[in-house]
Amino acid sequence: MATVAIAPVRLPRVSWQRIGPILLVLPLALYMLAFYLVPLASMLLRSLAEPSWTLDNYRRLAADSVFLEVFWTTLRTACVVTLGTILLGYPVALALSRLRRGAATMVLIVVLLPFWTSVLVRSYAWMVLLGRHGVINELLIGVGLIGAPLRLLNTSFAVHIAMIHILLPYMILPIASVLRQIDGALPRAAAGLGAPPWRVFLHVVLPLSLPGVAAGSLLVFVLSLGFYITPALVGGPRDLMLSMLIAQQVDLLNWPYAACLSAALLAVTLLLIAAFQRLPGMRDLLRTATR
Amino acid sequence: MIGRAAFRVLWIVVLMFLVLPILIVVVLSFSSASYLTFPPPGLGIRWYRAYLGSGEWLASTWLSLGVAGCVVVLSTILGTLASLGLARLPPAMRTIMGALILSPLIVPGIVVAIGIYYVFARYRLVGTPAGLVLAHTCLAVPFVVTSVSASLAGLDRRLEQAALSLGATPWGAFRQVTLPLIRPGVLVGALFAFITSFDELIVALFLSGSGAITLPRRMWDDLRFAIDPTIAAVSTLTIALSAMLLLGAHLVRRHQASEPGGTV
Fold first, then answer.
1. What do you get for the CA distance between the two ends of chain A, in Å?
2. Is A26 contained in some domain?
3. pLDDT at B40
4. Partner B, chain A 144-183, Cβ-Cβ below 8 Å
5. Fewer Cβ within 10 Å of end Cβ, chain A: N or C?
6. Does B41 touch chain A (CB under 8 A)?
7. Is residue B7 part of a domain?
8. Which CATH number goes with the domain that contains A213?
9. B68 is a domain residue
10. Between these two residues, A14 and A153, which has the higher pLDDT value?
11. What pTM did the predictor assign?
């Protein structure tokens, strides 16, 4: 404050402090604009601008039986995968929140290593496991449980199990993060008042952890909607998901239709995020994921 | 007691479900058989030899490494600068910019990919490494920004103010005070930017063309014909790379936590 005397010289500094941050963000903002936002927007505009400015493409979409069926498959798959990850992920999240530091780190590594293994490699793993001469069929035949190989690959079952496997960490991490924040005095109080462990869980821990379940579900559901690689590799002809239909249409150079489908997929995704963005755990997830 | 044992069995089974498929790929990559069969009749490294002896696989590997390297440089510089600015922006602007920068994490990959393809095709960027670098950087930047922002959130701003009041220039204060303190966050962000680009497939499906076939793209092309054990070998190598980078990130964080003044 002793420098008040030279305040006139400092005056430009004040506005510099306001402009400085903007100048720092500007390069990335322009970059994202040029190589991400504008490309996306101009592609999506094709759905409105063909043949002339019109909403016809969307009107046709609503009556298009292929789209409706694919949309239904996509929603169904996302629901099954979300439920599956809740059922399998919750116990791991609970264990993660209760284990001592060293053991918890081990579990976290087991959860994070698949998380950072590419989706392609993990889908390939399921092709190896579920194939006609794959690991599971060979084992079952070897044990004598079945005589001929089962058809496991290229089925909806394969899509569901592989996607549950791939998306499980996205469910475990938000639930574990919420569970860790629960005040330990609450379950202790319930137990002290005579509640058996299962009641402590059911009436205290479970309700308090539901925000984490909701955040994980939102994330898994939204990511499932856009899945492409896994259903394309392990799914059958009846497991056409929205992303695959979009890729097909681009291959056929049917841009207006592809743009329409993309807009629909994007709209559902963004609406879900906007509706549920207040859920806790989204930021925590990113922080854990990049740890 | 029974409940507790059942609970333990349950989560251990789920952890095995997470890891076993990946472990089986690793085991199969060392199979001596000429086709995929489990358990492998013998162990050997013939599939690694097949990989190392294939010019196509190696070319794709080098391309992927090169693209990922460029993506790291570009996304780390852009992302770190933006994180420094974001922390000082007015809240409303910060929310909007943050949403834009983080959106590639949520927007379906196929939508991003065809959007970029739609425009890049016009500028002849399809089938070039440059096109892949430009596109992958958009996907990698969110990881850099999250990681660096987390470091900045744990930073004591008074240190920087102290440097400035002691006569340091803004650049000097950044270089000598802020940067050393957020370096772990920058490093971790760079590692994740690398993995993001190295493993990326959906954008590569559209942008690779015939001139810039990345490693995931070549794996994908091969998978459509046959589940050749060479892919198991390549997969194992990429898993090992991910594991090493993950370990690197962990060590960086731990080193930082043990340093005096290092928070986060």
1. 41
2. no
3. 81
4. 165, 168-169
5. N
6. no
7. no
8. 1.10.3720.10
9. yes
10. A153
11. 0.89
